[in-house]
Predict the 3D structure of the following.
Amino acid sequence: MTNTRDTRMVMIVDSEPAQQRFLAALVSRGGWRSVIAADTDTALAKLGTQEGMALDAVLVDQGAPGMDISEFVGELRRWRPALPLVVITMRNGVEVAVGAMRAGASDFVQKPIAPDRLLEALDRVVSTSGPQGELRPLTEKLRAPLAFEEIIGSSPNFRSALAIAAKAARARVPVMINGKPGTGKEVFARAIHSASPRARGQLVMVDCSAVSPGLIGSGLFGHERGAFAGAFDRQVGRLVQADGGSIIIDHVECIPLETQAKLVEFLNSGEVQMIGGSIRQSVDVRIIATSTSPLDKLIEAGHFREDLFYALSSAQFTLPSLSERRGDVGPLARHLLARIGGLPGMGPIGVTDDALRLLAAYAWPGNVRQLQDVLFRAAVNSTTDVLTSADFRAIEATLGGGSPNGEGEIAINGEAIGVTLYLPDGNLRPLEEIEADVIRLAIGHYRGRMSEVARRLGIGRSTLYRKLSDLGIDTAA
């Protein structure tokens, strides 16, 4: 039985005393008590002790001495099948994470460890009230920059957002991206930077939701030593670090009003002044801001400056939720699986049409991020290289064996396989629109490799480019 929150216990498997102390202090902030094992053999031996029987979770570093991490996970699963386990990997340790997940790990986090992310991972793996099975969220994002032609979506509202983003990328203006969590705001922001004249410059990201409000200003503008209590050293701000490039300010709605005023001043002058400093430094940086909350309501409530909103919104768009573009689920799933299959430790992964129809019937409250998590878990746990509806039992159970509308049949007019054929009134869409969607689908599916797109469509490259022009499609639309 899981302990109550204030008595939960986690075993930390790590050989470095400093890291042991750091992790123990970190998990204690989340209401966890900890027991330490310096190596994997000791950890397994402790499972049978009174202390080990009281464990709610295990946290193991991939570098812990002893057996291979996947072997350790497998052994722990053999002795304690239901005990949640989180693996700490290196920043580029995707292959280790894949191996550990296949062996039975519940989740993984990457170094450098973000405290909130680790606590979130531990809370998730012991929770019995949240989504289970393949619907259980992953803590880490599987980051990989996408070019605009790799961003999948054929629905009008999504294509409109993509067109605005592509046009903004070529300009020098600030960009504001709105959308619910998981809709792909960071993906779009990174694509804007990559397609811009600043692509060779630094891309810096600040997540304002993960920083104490009192430290956001210091993070953006920097501070001099002694500028405030705890400022023991001089710190260069992220705006200066991004000079010549771009900065993504995620969750801009979390910035306190005092720092908002400084940001307006910077946007007007192009100069940064450190907190506690007197020197002003010219900085050339493009700001890409994202928000999950409607800023107009925050402005009305007096929590967000109207002048900052207009200064950041030279180009702005809202990303639709995945439930608003269900016809994109099929091609998006195929595209994500192609990327997952290219990860170290993975291989090519297919998916059947019945599985795609099941995925298209689900509401996806966590949007694209949730779809990626589900596909990753399913791909890791599958014993074959083709995913079927049997790999998505949790989704099937959520739907009750039928469509979200309770009609008892999971089918969405062929949309799950990538192209919508019918208009809402039941008539066929114009051939030109269907052809445009097929070409967009092919560009996404073959990740922008135009020679492959032309070959698979059975046309020459010159014909393909002519059709792109005639249909109003380019590599950024």
Summary: The chain has 20 helices and 16 strands.
